[in-house]
Design brief:
106 residues, 4-stranded antiparallel sheet
Length: 106
């Protein structure tokens, strides 16, 4: 069952923005749960310069078949022009938890 699940990571520029995006994703059943952590320090290159900023990180637990919809949703509803959307495969985990993730995204 674990190969059916992914964790999707994105970041936002504020705790409020992260909370709104997390709630909208769960409400749309594109993820069963989204954890918001932060602030985190992000150092990255954007528009030719190196930036060092505070961001809030979101970890969305979902199923592989919801990944395209979640990606589209984030890209449409995110405050950034080019939001981070990275999907990591789930290699294992509690069968009960993974079953809940599947059920909550239906």
């Amino acid at each position: 069952m674990s190969d059916e699940h992914v964790v999707v990571i994105t970041t936002t520029d504020s705790e409020e923005s992260a909370g709104r995006l997390a709630a909208a994703v769960v409400e749309a059943r594109l993820a069963a749960c989204v954890q918001v952590g932060g602030p985190v320090r992000s150092v990255y290159r954007w528009e030719g310069e190196v930036r060092d900023e505070r961001e809030w990180q979101l970890w969305a637990k979902t199923t592989r078949d919801r990944l395209a919809g979640l990606t589209d949703f984030i890209q449409t509803n995110h405050p950034y022009d080019t939001p981070e959307v990275v999907a990591l495969p789930v290699l294992g985990g509690s069968p009960a938890y993974l079953g809940w993730v599947t059920e909550a995204t239906r």
